[in-house]
From TrEMBL:
The keyword Transmembrane applies. Keywords: Membrane, Transmembrane, Transmembrane helix. This is Uncharacterized protein. The chain crosses the membrane at residues 37-55, 75-96, 125-147, 167-190.
Length: 213
């Protein structure tokens, strides 16, 4: 948007020295910028899915699978994984469709509508990922408390005495802090990457509103 702002300043300073740029030319510039932003959203979502898939592939070793079996959640985690891939692929398809819609739109109103739709899709995508991370984290923590032998031996040492309540308060506090930090890092990533693109996209929307008036 810096180029557009500089261009508008030049109009005011030199409106008698240079030929005036039409609204159609401004629209073409905003259309090109919006299409590029949505294309990057589509590309980044694919790269993100590939990165998470590689992390899962290299961390899901035999010990990890045995742990899931001992926690009696192997089937549940597998179900979560399948559902997650289906939903992520659906979002990637929506990002691609949004890109095609913006890339082929031919009016200011249509472009504004597609920009808002794209922003909403990205916001849903971010919230879905944060919620899914929360569900998987809570599932793992509950299974650990119930089925992990080392944890049960440790917690059994505090049962029936005054330190029992303190032990569970410490576990709860540690869980909340760790969960908050983990989700916070993921949210910060989305804020920096997708948030930056969405802010630029919204600036385009605001400029289009001026044209549409």
């Amino acid at each position: 948007m810096e180029e557009l702002d500089l261009l508008k300043k030049d109009w005011k300073k030199n409106e008698h020295s240079f030929p005036k740029i039409t609204e159609q030319e401004i629209y073409a510039m905003l259309h090109k910028k919006s299409s590029s932003i949505v294309k990057w959203i589509f590309i980044i979502s694919i790269l993100e899915m590939i990165a998470w898939s590689l992390i899962s592939f290299f961390t899901a070793d035999e010990n990890y699978l045995k742990t899931l079996e001992s926690y009696h959640i192997k089937t549940l985690v597998t179900t979560f994984t399948v559902i997650n891939y289906i939903v992520i692929f659906s979002f990637i398809f929506l990002f691609y469709r949004n890109f095609k819609s913006i890339n082929t739109t031919d009016s200011v109103k249509s472009l504004m509508k597609n920009i808002l739709k794209t922003r909403k899709t990205v916001q849903y995508y971010i919230w879905y990922n944060l919620v899914m991370i929360g569900i998987i984290f809570i599932t793992m923590m509950v299974a650990t408390c119930i089925y992990d032998e080392r944890f049960n031996r440790m917690s059994g040492q505090f049962e029936g005495n005054d330190q029992g309540m303190l032990f569970w308060m410490m576990i709860l506090g540690f869980t909340i802090v760790f969960f908050g930090l983990f989700v916070g890092v993921i949210w910060l990533f989305y804020r920096l990457v997708y948030g930056f693109l969405l802010r630029r996209l919204y600036k385009n929307y605001e400029e289009l509103k001026k044209i549409d008036l």
